[in-house]
Amino acid sequence: MKTHNQKAWFFVLPVLILVAFNALIPMMTVVNYSVQETFGNNQFFWQGLDWFENILNSSRFQAALGRQFLFTGIILAIEIPLGVIIALAMPRKGVWVSVCLVTVALPMLIPWNVVGAMWNIFTLPDIGLLGYFMNHVLGVDYNMTQSPFAAWVTIVAMDVWHWTSLVVLLSYAGLVSIPDAYYQAAKIDGASAFAVFRYIQLPKMKRVLTIAVLLRFMDSFNIYTEVFVLTGGGPGNSTTLLSIDLVKIALGQFDLGPAAAMSLIYFAITLLVSWLFYTLMTRDETK
Amino acid sequence: MLGWMAWTWPTALLFIGIFSAMGILTIIEIRYPGGDERKGVLGLVTTRGDRLFITLLGAVYIHLAWLGFFGMPLWAPIAISIAWGTFAFWKV
After folding, report:
1. Which residue, of A159, A184, A264, B10, is most buried by count of CB atoms within 10 Å of its CB?
2. Which domains does chain A have, with CATH numbers?
3. What is the ipTM score, two decimals?
4. CA-based end-to-end distance of chain A
5. Which residues of A207-224 are buried (b: 16+ CB within 10 A; e: fewer)?
6. pLDDT by residue (tens digit) across A110-130?
7. Residues of B contacting chain A (CB within 8 angstroms)
């Protein structure tokens, strides 16, 4: 098809300007910071690539990165299957559809810091509902300010509670878009429920699941507020994820150079994993 | 006006390099539209822009890996990155 005019570029212009100001220019500044040292007063001294070398070889960074991958791996392994199962169980016709949808969507409406504060109170050993129940009714020693394991269980539970809804809604959207004819054909062929899932529902949900996995990966890999409010990275360093460590270095210690280098490495990892996910999951369609 | 961005010549050159690469690709795209789409050795369908992205992302990781394992100087990873870029534009 021949292009008749170039007007469309003007419609893209506002987005370009917005992205330039909220992403590109700050990002370029971070690149500039990452090769320099500053003691404040907007004075910078050339440092070369020392920060990158230090960060890559620091055990603190490696530990935080490990915790970050562990966290993201766990929540993806729980949220994606759980979200699909809930979406399959939801009604597709009738009055209950809207009731289910609104109920499921509720956790997503709550701001991140409120989620952290809610779970903080919820898990207090003596007055929180969950904490009291675990300690005084079940008799399980559960205190996330003392035990790293309890802290991990809590942050994973919190994220699953907060974000499985997103996977549910996306999967549900994929499910309702499947025409009835597919199900009728499966019925005539005598397909089992699993076969229907495997050969009709899953392939039809593939696109939305790609988006769900990507969104959940990026969000959980960059998670900060909820975990910070809930555990503050503790006990000790046990829940200090990459973003929490980054903020500690950048704002706590005001080491802008190392923090910039660290955030660029962080960005490179997010970019690569997202690209791999996207490429692998859409590879069949582009053949 | 740009003082707050703390520019240095090496980082400026880096961005000039990236933006001119994108500019050159834009000119090539206007001259020869379609993005030269093909299926490469990795089994991926890529356009020129995809190949530039793969080259740059690969170069980032080559440099980071070298810095992490061996440190300065960076002549070897630069050479590897150029080789990787050539491979990406030629075969991927």
Report:
1. A159
2. 59-282 (1.10.3720.10)
3. 0.86
4. 22
5. bbbbbbbbebbbebbbbe
6. 888 888 888 888 888 888 888
7. 3-8, 10-11, 14-15, 39, 43-45, 53, 57, 60-61, 64, 67-68, 71-72, 74
